[in-house]
Amino acid sequence: MISSAKSLTDLPGFSGRSQKNCLWVRTSAGPQIGFGHLKRTVTLAQSLIDCCQPIFLIDSQDCWSQERLANIGFSYFTGDLDRTWSVLPKPVAILIDTRISKGLDGLIADANDRKIPVASIHDLGLNPVPSDIRIDGSISPIFEKSQRNAIFYGGTPYMVLDPEYRSLHQKKKQIQNKIKLVFINLGGGDSKRYFTKVLKGLKRWNNTLEVIGAPGFAHWGQEDLESKDWRPLAFRWETGSISKFLFQADLAITAGGLAAYEALCAGTPLMALSYDNYQQSAITALSNAGACISLGSGNDLDPARLPDQLAALELNISERNHLSSQGRLLVDGLGAQRVSQVIRDLIFNSLIADFEAIQ
User: Fold this and answer.
1) Which residue range forms the structural domain that includes residue 138?
2) Is the pTM of this model over 0.85?
3) What CA–CA distance (Å, rounded) separates 155 from 338?
4) If DSSP codes are grouped into helix, strand and coil, which group holds residue 270?
């Protein structure tokens, strides 16, 4: 059950979205660390603009985040974190979602001195920080128990996805007798070596398939890959309506990050490969829960083995139905709403504390 949003306009002196009520958002993106952190925080910021002014704190070298934020119209600051207090309006709260630790301890220490609450979002316990609220929406959340005063929200109910995936979750997913459309999303960075292996495996299966790939954000030679002869596959890239093609697909093949949870929410039977041990930990847990088929490490993926796995899955429609239903049980698409409410409450309580302090 999700509580209704608290109205911050009920507070004395509050007049809606205002620079006086800033939410600082520390995040990052790039081929090495992925794009899920930025996608999550943008989704949350968009849901919170009625009650605060999000300002993103971005590294000067992080061109990926800067370009994305500029395109959607969010404000961002690229100076050193220790300069934020003298340059930016004082925040009512700080949200952290990044794998980059540099400067976080000082930022949080300054926030504590100023009695400004801090919330942090993590994957499998990555990059633990001494925040007031810690959120881990992964299948196997890991929390630092020594933070006795921290409040924890964990598990797939708190996986932040774009609201469009909640809409897909509400639609009936028809599992077809044959696998005819395969959707591949291996993340936003350089995934050439993994894409090549997956496509070679699909080609070896020798079935007439429509294969749609999500090209990600980094440029690594997508055009060259598309121009190769993949027959009997009909392979193409798609950059728009990614969620629509994911939902229409008979099978999704993803990496073990945010894309996997999107497939689970959409109800599309999932095969997943990992980039690292953290992703493999998540994929193993999802497999144990009956929500996906683990392909193991992308580095070790053998294209010659993939046809047998695909053939077995196609013949077993009951397993594909089970994968679809279990995925939807784990991820309902309401994580963004739940986490937004947690942050909204944090902002509300911070404003109340400020108001009481000046009385």
Assistant:
1) 8-162+333-354
2) yes
3) 12
4) strand
Cβ–Cβ under 8 Å, residues 228 and 213: no
> 């429509």: which residue's tokens?
210
Domain CATH for 233: 3.40.50.2000
Residue 359 binned pLDDT confidence (cut-offs 50, 70, 90): low
pLDDT of residue 253: 98
Of all residues in the chain, the percent with pLDDT exceeding 90 is 75
The number of distinct structural domains making up the chain is 2
- Report if residue 194 sits inside a domain: yes
Q: What is the spatial distance between Cα 142 and Cα 270, in angstroms, rounded to a whole number?
A: 24
Kindly give, in sequence order, each residue whose CB lies less than 8 Å from that of residue 311, ignoring residues fewer than 6 positions away. 205
3-state DSSP assignment of residue 121: strand
CA distance 211 to 328: 23
Which residues, other chains included, contact 169 with Cβ-Cβ below 8 Å and sequence gap of 6+? 265, 266, 267, 328, 331, 332, 333
Q: Is residue 359 part of a domain?
A: no
